[in-house]
Automatic annotation (TrEMBL):
It holds the Pfam family SLBB_2. Belongs to the complex I 51 kDa subunit family. Signal peptide: none annotated. One of its GO terms (molecular function) is NAD binding. The lineage of its organism: Bacteria, Pseudomonadati, Pseudomonadota, Alphaproteobacteria, Hyphomicrobiales. Its EC number is 7.1.1.-. It catalyses: a quinone + NADH + 5 H(+)(in) = a quinol + NAD(+) + 4 H(+)(out). It comes from Rhizobium fredii (Sinorhizobium fredii). This is NADH-quinone oxidoreductase subunit F.
Length: 421
């Protein structure tokens, strides 16, 4: 029987307080690693668990930590990416609002493992409540000796700073986030060098997502075998799924990694609205290519979704029913990416601009023969030719819409109107 661990205090009105967190075993993982483990042993434990990053890329967390040089002539930094700008995603906000100490402890254990004494939490600026809860949690933890100089009587010193973003989706990309932290315009960097070698202030830096860091204390206390026993071996552990769109019970669900998408949508989220049927589901935020109703048996994990031509991404599940115009969906998604493009790469900046113009023309009933081929050509020019994955996500999403619902695009052009509206 699966028992939630990340959201166990989500409904408690005082779940954000230190007293509640301590009563449930909070900060015991930090005390344990300081008392019983070397930093290398903590890194090895996370490697054994096969925890993969919950921010979207799914890169093995322990491996990322292992890339940090053991000896460096500059300080090491830990950065938490809490920008969460992916549409359909709200899991990190709930952790920060409902269980902020879970994140703070995860930061402390992770910083100890990589040899960092300073951490920055880059938070989406609109998350006012989450920011206040984090500030309160950091103050409580500092007062009790979980942060500051000589944490819990050890020789480990650790400080956490909060940095509020200014509404840029591109800051979800790790190097653009580092640029913003340094006071520069948020644009992705060319890699290599990778952040583990030259990140914040050209120093060794590890960047992890909120949910990723929140998993770390549970791995320390329950063991790597416990974590690997949940879900598929290549993508194990508990997972937070954000469900929104045209579904009966939208919300945040903690379930095992690898649960079938159909079970997630129809059983846990209650299925489509009365009188409607599911047309498609976006499984991982709008960067993830949509999956038509016939493919919903796919498992919600990194490898299964990749094999199905999509990706888990941020696990922002958006349900689309049969009343929805897929041309309008595609147009809105590409408008979003065009608006949020930082403009650094010509294929992304110019390609998305033209894609928006063509899609708006088709949606308005002014489409022309050759428009769909033009969109496919634009996707080809964007995909794989940009500094970061923003352009790739846009191109993959548009390609999927064209592949699975081409008939709707053709109908818009032939009938010179939207058949749905």
């Amino acid at each position: 029987m699966f028992e939630p661990v990340l959201l166990k205090n989500i409904d408690a009105p005082d779940g954000h307080l230190l007293s509640t967190y301590e009563a449930g075993g909070g900060y015991q993982a930090l005390a344990k690693v300081l008392r019983e483990h070397t930093p290398d042993e903590v890194v090895d434990l996370v490697k054994q668990s096969n925890l993969r990053g919950r921010g979207g890329a799914g890169f093995p967390t322990g491996m990322k930590w292992g890339f940090v040089p053991k000896r460096a002539d500059k300080p090491k930094y830990l950065c938490c990416n809490a920008d969460e700008g992916e549409p359909g995603t709200f899991k990190d906000r709930i952790i920060m609002e409902s269980a902020p100490h879970q994140l703070v402890e995860g930061l402390a254990v992770s910083a100890y493992a990589i040899g960092a004494e300073t951490a920055y939490v880059y938070v989406r600026g609109e998350y006012v409540k989450a920011i206040r809860r984090l500030e309160q949690a950091i103050a409580e933890a500092r007062e009790k000796g979980y942060l500051g100089a000589g944490v819990l009587g050890s020789d480990f010193n650790f400080t956490v700073h909060i940095h509020c973003g200014a509404g840029a989706y591109i800051c979800g990309e790790e190097t653009a986030m580092l640029e913003s932290l340094e006071g520069k315009r948020a644009q992705p960097r060319l890699k290599p060098p990778f952040p583990a070698v030259a990140g914040l202030y050209a120093s060794p830096t590890v960047i992890n997502n909120v949910e990723t860091l929140a998993c770390v204390p549970h791995i320390v206390m329950r063991g790597a075998h416990w974590f690997r026993a949940i879900g598929p071996d290549k993508s194990p552990g508990p997972k937070l799924y954000c469900i929104s769109g045209q579904v009966r019970k939208p919300g945040l669900y903690e379930l095992p990694m690898g649960i079938p998408l159909r079970e997630l949508v129809e059983n846990h989220a209650g299925g489509p609205l009365p009188g409607r049927s599911i047309k498609a589901v976006i499984p991982g935020g709008v960067s993830a290519p949509l999956i038509p109703e016939g493919g919903l048996e796919v498992g919600m994990d990194f490898d299964s979704l990749a094999a199905a031509g999509s990706m888990l991404g941020s696990a922002g599940v958006i349900v689309i029913d049969d009343s929805t115009c897929m041309v309008k969906v595609a147009t809105r998604i590409i408008e979003f990416f065009h608006h949020e493009s930082c403009g650094k790469c010509t294929p992304c900046r110019e390609g998305l601009n033209w894609a928006v113009k063509v899609l708006r023309r088709i949606e308005a009933g002014d489409g022309a023969p050759g428009d769909l081929e033009q969109l496919e050509k634009l996707c080809k020019g964007i995909f794989g030719n940009t500094f970061c994955a923003l352009g790739d996500g846009a191109a993959m999403g548009l390609r999927a819409a064209l592949a699975h619902f081409r008939n709707e695009f053709v109908a818009h052009i032939d009938e010179r109107r939207c058949p749905f509206h």
